[in-house]
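Researcher: Please predict.
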Amino acid sequence: MTTQTAQDPRPMLARALDQAERQVAAVRPDELGHPAPCADYDVRALLGHVLSVLYKLARAGTGGDARGVPDVTEGVADDGWAGAFASARGEVERVRADDGLLDRMVQLPWAALPGRDALEAYTAEFTAHSWDLAHATGRLAGLDPGLAAQALEAFSEFAPPEERSEQGRFSPVVAVPEGADVYTRLAAYLGRRP
């Protein structure tokens, strides 16, 4: 049985995965070619990337090297994305149930981190990609603002604006009107044009 404390990132990861799973399940085959707001992806490629992120998290959490997982999983049937996500999420759920993961070092594509930090980073990534899918398919209603607030804080720490370029993982911050909602601010912080 796991003990969940204020320092345990797993409850927020579960919320982010729930949200991402709802977005993935809502995608219709006729939406797969829609452009996504992130780097040269359409919805199909974004779904493939989200699936790969699950595979990376599962591999890193079991002591493997996530750098060996491709950035985009291909070969999923048009109507198979929800099932593929659920299956990969099951692997992640088994890995995250291990309390030892929180303090064990894991190898991610960009760094070796304690498992706790890796789970927080992937929570932010799943939150951002949920917005990407919602924006690309017109399903922005119902996104969890608490997840976006946490993701914005996390990205502010590990992707500061001064380290951005058009060639990097994150584009420069985009200006948004004062009073913009938290998902709009998150997307703009990541260089998306909401």
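Model: The radius of gyration is 16 Å.
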